[in-house]
Amino acid sequence: MEQDSALRAHLVKLLSGGQAYQPLSTLLKDLSAETAGKTVQDLPYTIWQLVDHMRYTLEDILEFINNPNYQEPNWPDDYWPKEKAPGNQAALDKSINAISKGKQEMIKLVQDTSNDLYKPFPHGDGQTLLREALLVAEHNAYHVGEVIVLRRLLGDWE
């Protein structure tokens, strides 16, 4: 039981960020829609596309966890926004807030000791809550690094 509690605590820290990289709340704070939609030469995506991709992917993972009738979207078309920039600041803020909400939902799933971290989902092909939590953390960490680099290249980060 002690090991289970320790693992859950480590997962929460990993999902929250801030140990090896900036937490999302810090990274995305004060991000403007204008900056989020700017392109950088030789990069195929904008900050907006990364942020909205992170939102969509997190929501998709949570849908998989919670819905036994889950239908996988088409990769990569359904996972990436077509538009380079958000329609406005409200659209960007909505996507950022959805990431925060989804991350908190994942943390609650991990913290709930009635959820077996190792039991495969009956509607999957071996995925477990542990695997999905690690996937969210890895996916977010990967894209957090990209957003930081883009913000620096755009002169919008220290």
Automatic annotation (TrEMBL):
<dbReference type="Pfam" id="PF12867">
    <property type="entry name" value="DinB_2"/>
</dbReference>
<dbReference type="InterPro" id="IPR034660">
    <property type="entry name" value="DinB/YfiT-like"/>
</dbReference>
<dbReference type="InterPro" id="IPR024775">
    <property type="entry name" value="DinB-like"/>
</dbReference>
<feature type="domain" description="DinB-like">
    <location>
        <begin position="20"/>
        <end position="146"/>
    </location>
</feature>
<protein>
    <submittedName>
        <fullName>DinB family protein</fullName>
    </submittedName>
</protein>
